[in-house]
Design a protein that fits this description.
Helix content: 10-25%
Mean pLDDT: 94
CATH architecture of the largest domain: Sandwich
CATH topology of the largest domain: Tumour Suppressor Smad4
CATH class of the largest domain: Mainly Beta
Radius of gyration: 20 Å
Distance between the termini: 42 Å
Structural class: alpha+beta
Number of strands: 16
Low-confidence stretches: none
Number of domains: 2
Strand content: 35-45%
Length: about 260
């Protein structure tokens, strides 16, 4: 098997920049826009940045942990990188699309690999009406907000909001409230990955809400529609002895 042309990209963290310099001395690279494989050096946030940056090309990305959080990264070692890349196992994921209708009359679209979240903008709780595939499932949710998370994103903000961890092969999404006030006992729902979620903001003038898809925030939204984009596929590469599916499984048993 022939190794594809590779490019290194690193976050601004000193450890990532040191790794970039070290790897650059040992391996031949190509410009990122011409490479067939990207090696990302940093943390999970930087991995998401790389996935977004190269989304149109769907170039595989192999992350090495040189940041604060490394759930989506492989361990760092400068030796044997070629062999690791040739053995790496691909994981393909589909992003969510957010279509946000804003109070100024515009519509904003953005993609999310982890989650789309809606959050109150002021001291007052948000009032939200939630429909799934055109049918209202929750007439009124009073909460700090709500999110739709992918399996990859289920171990991130979704988990912090007490949402479920989702194995990658299940083809479901998590619909998770953020600090729900009413109904107090509603803990969210698991939805088929093809479901379309529509969130309407009630009393939007009094209780403004923002919507965020990974790095893209839209403020003063009136409604947000969220759906998976099956036509867009992103590829991450993992060492076979410590792949992402195994990490997600182990995460469910951590105390």
């Amino acid at each position: 098997m022939t190794l594809p042309t590779i490019a290194f990209e690193a976050s601004d963290a000193p450890a990532a920049q040191d790794a970039l310099a070290e790897l650059g001395r040992h391996y031949k690279t190509a410009p990122a826009d011409q490479a067939e494989l990207i090696v990302a050096l940093g943390g999970d946030g930087f991995m998401l940045e790389c996935l977004h940056r190269h989304m149109k090309r769907n170039v595989p990305i192999y992350g090495m942990h040189r940041g604060s959080v490394g759930f989506l990264m492989n361990s760092y070692a400068p030796e044997g990188l070629v062999e690791r890349l040739l053995r790496a196992v691909p994981v393909r994921v589909h992003p969510l699309e957010m279509a946000a209708h804003v109070s100024n009359g515009t519509e904003r679209h953005a993609l999310a690999i982890n989650e789309v979240s809606l959050l109150r903008q002021t001291r007052q709780t948000a009032k939200l009406r939630i429909a799934v595939d055109g049918e209202i499932q929750l007439e009124e949710l009073m909460a700090d907000g709500v999110m739709v998370a992918t399996p990859v994103g289920s171990t991130a903000y979704n988990l912090s909001a007490h949402g479920p961890i989702i194995p990658l092969a299940t083809n479901v999404l998590a619909l998770t409230p953020i600090s729900a006030f009413r109904p107090r006992r509603w803990r969210g729902a698991l939805l088929p990955h093809a479901a379309q979620v529509h969130v309407e903001i009630l009393e939007a003038d009094k209780r403004p809400v923002s919507a965020t898809a990974d790095f893209t925030e839209v403020r003063d939204v009136l409604s947000v529609t969220i759906r998976e984009r099956p036509d867009i596929a992103l590829t991450m590469l993992f060492d076979p002895e410590h792949n992402l599916e195994e990490r997600v499984l182990k995460e469910q048993f951590l105390s």
